Structures are given as structure tokens and as C-alpha cells.
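User: Can you help me understand a structure? I only have the sequence.
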Amino acid sequence: MGSLIYFNSASLDGYIAGPDGRWTWATPDAEVHSFVNRLLAPARTHLYGRKVYDVMKVWDDIPLDDLPPAEREFALQWRDVDKIVYSRRLGAVTTRRTELRSTFDADEARRLKDASADPLAIGGGQLASVAARAGLLDAVHVVFCPVVVGGGIRFLDEGLRLDLELTDERRFENGFVYLGYRVRRG
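Assistant: Let's start by predicting it. Here is the structure, written out as C-alpha cells:
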């Protein structure tokens, strides 16, 4: 049986995008990018909401020769995973190995987890919060960026409660800090 892992970068005050919707302050350097590549490499299926998919789909056709090594590695990984996008507004997906669903179905996600020997990755705070409320989230990974943005899109929904056990941590030269947690069950 697989697991469902949530990874994202966040400001120190818990936002994945600022009040203006921008997240350029979270752009990883080569060291952080390489670490994230290794962290996400085992996940063979990624689950995304529309906003995260809109950000991520650039990796599908960006010219590889134009990318530094860590970004090239990520682009190749991203192209090689199955993706499911949940959106009521998106009419079609344009990337390889991608399916579109109108809504997140917790039972379907549970079946995907049960059928997989590999972890599944979930992207986006709102979608991860829905999965957490359904009891599906198994791990939370966050790279904190050395910035306070004062508002915006939250890492996880306000009011969501998860009990977590620290499993890993790492400091990076650029001031970013990684924390990995296992979700404790009842």
C-alpha cells in the first residue's frame, strides 16, 4: 500500500503564495531543488488542483537544454509521472500522462493509495487539506523560506488539525529549512 505525501514551500508565517498570489520568494536554489527532486522521486502519481497544475505544467515542454541540472532533473521526473488534476473550471489538460477530474473523490484517492507500492504526491494546500480531512494524508513535507509575507494562500487550511511526528529536518545554505513529518493517526 502506498502513502499520500504533501510537499510545498511556505513562508515562515505559513503561506505558499503571498497576498498578491506570487511565490517568487520561494524559488529554490540548486541545493534545495536537488533535495526536492530526491524527496519527490519515489512518487509516481501526483494529484493537483487547478492552480498548482497551472504553475507546474511549464515543466512538460520547457526546453531541457535551457535548464540548470537540478531543474532539468525535475522536468524529466515531472514528465515521467502520472498526474490527476481536479478542477470544475478547467475544460481540458494539455500535458502528458495527465487526467482531469471535476472533483476530488476521497474513495478514488484511497483506492489509488491501496493499489500503489509507491507514494502519491499531492500539491496545493486546499487539496491537501481536503485529503487530510478525509484521513488520507500520511506525511507532510515543508521547506520554509526565510520570509514573512503577511497573508495569501495558506500552506494548509485554517482550522485543520493534524498531529504530526517529526521524521526529518535539514538546513540549507540559502536560509531555507526543511521539515518532514509523519501524520499520527488517532
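Now, to help you interpret it: DSSP finds five helices and ten strands in the chain. The first strand starts at residue 4 and ends at 11. Let me know which part you'd like to focus on.
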